[in-house]
Structures are given as C-alpha cells and as structure tokens.
Amino acid sequence: MSVTSWWNRWLGRSDVKPISDLPRRLRWGAVTDIGTVRENNEDRYFVHSNGHYFLVADGMGGQSAGEKASEIAADVIPKRLDQLLNFKSDDPEKVAASIDEAIARANADIMALGELDPSLHSMGTTVAMLVAVANRLYAAGIGDSRVYRLRGKELQQLTKDHTLTEMLRESGTITSEEAAHHRFKNVLTRYLGSKEGGTGANTQSFDVYPGDRFVLCSDGVTEGVSNDLLKQILKSESDPQKAAQAIGAAAKEGGSRDNITCVTVFVA
User: Quick one: 21-267 is in which CATH superfamily?
Assistant: First the structure.
C-alpha cells in the first residue's frame, strides 16, 4: 500500500476505496501453545485453505472435555458454512443467518454428546470467527474469545464478550477500567455447550481496506497482551505468521496462565 493511500485513510479522505477481490488479498498466520501452566491444550483453530473463514475455539471442562468441545466446534462449524454459503455472492443477511445456524449446530452436538458421556457432561467452548463472503468480512463470536481489527492507528474489538463482567459494564454497574480486573471477568454467560450457546453470534459485517489487519484469539492471549502491545506487534510485523508467533510469545511473557491461540489475517 502506498504512503499516499495511508495518509488518505488517516485523514479521512473518501478516495480510498474498499477492496473488491477477497479472499485473494488475504494472508494469514496461526499459532497455538499449551502455555506455561496447563497440562493440555484445549484450544483449537481452523483456517480455510482458500481463506473463506477463520476460527478460534477455547474449550473448557477439564481433562479431555474441553479439548473435545473445541474439536467439535472446529469440525462442525466449517462443514456447515461450506454447506450453507455461496462465498462469492451471498448477502449480509444470509451470511449472518448461516453463521448462527452453523454455531447452533455445533452447540447442539456438544450438548448432545455431553448428555451421552458423563465424562464430557460439563464441556463447553468459546468460538471467534472471521468469514469472507463476496467483498465483505464478517466477525462473530460466542464467549470471550475475540476478533480485533487494526485499521490505520485504531485497534478495535469487533466481537462482544459474553461474560458476567461485560453485562455489569453494559448496565453501568462497573466501569471499563474496573471490568478489566474484575473477579468475574472470566465467568461466561454464553458458550457452546449451554442453552444460550445457540442464540446468536452478534455477527458484524464491514468493508475491507488495504492494510487492515485482524487477530482472532483465545483469552489466553488477552490475559497476557495489552491492547497497546497488540497494536504495536500488528503494526511492526509485515508477515502474518511472524505476527502470530510474536503475539503468542508476548502472551507467555506477559504472564498468561491459559492456553494461547491466535490467528492473524492481513489484507494486502
């Protein structure tokens, strides 16, 4: 991207146009790590070979249960998206409905298996997704895994946390600053494997511009990496795989006690 184009964007000029040839303009990288404390890795990620969608899932439930839940999400959701979507032409309403349907199917499968196998009864998983259809991207999530976008100088969280702390913040009971360190910040109000897990993923649709950079991550990343550091890494690394590795390393160095998984998606 030219220096002129960057200045156009930062100055808010209208002559910078959204790109029109997704997903050929997307490059990506991914990393998952057990971290420094956990005995197993309950995170999973999935990257479509042609860049049609990206997914991060963070399982929970102890022993092998969390691994199984995230495995189901990373298997069922891609299969349903492939069945439901025309990635070249579907409109935003169709895409959002398809994402919700794919998540609802995975949620039902996780709940059903949990009922059949007592050792998996308490399993669940979060999910964060980025889907490319026609010339737009769609961000969606359940739980507290997140999708971020760096555009110019602004880092924005595109997904909503389904946590008790976020509910308290939205109601005005606590401030954003208090929410960052609240004792209930990891208590989920919605996740796959619960009745609420299939009730919608708050899908956001947006145009894509040259230079946009995205991160999908489990809370093992956000526990150890501040927004300022995440922005710094995304701006300084030109290769998405190196960026993913740097984010993972920063999360470990930052004291994260969870599994660490992130997928980076850069727009050329």
Answer: PPM-type phosphatase domain (3.60.40.10)
Q: Quick count: other Cβ atoms within 10 Å of Cβ 145?
A: 30
Question: Would you give the end-to-end CA distance of the chain in angstroms?
Answer: 7
Residue 148's H or E segment, with its range, is strand 146-151
Dihedral angle, C-alpha 30, 203, 64, 76, nearest 10 °:
-90
Tokens 């995205």, residue located: 214
107-141 exposure pattern, b = at least 16 Cβ within 10 A, e = fewer: bebbbebbeeeeebeebbbbbbbbbbbeebbbbbb
Please report the pLDDT score of residue 63 as a whole number. 62
Phi, psi of 59, rounded to the nearest 5 degrees: -80, 160
- pLDDT 10s digits, 188-220: 999 999 999 999 999 999 999 999 999 999 999
What pTM value is reported for the model?
A: 0.92
Provide the token pair at 61. 């439930």
Dist. CA 89–CA 112, nearest whole Å = 34
Backbone angles phi, psi at 115, to 5 degrees: -75, -30
pLDDT at position 239 is 98
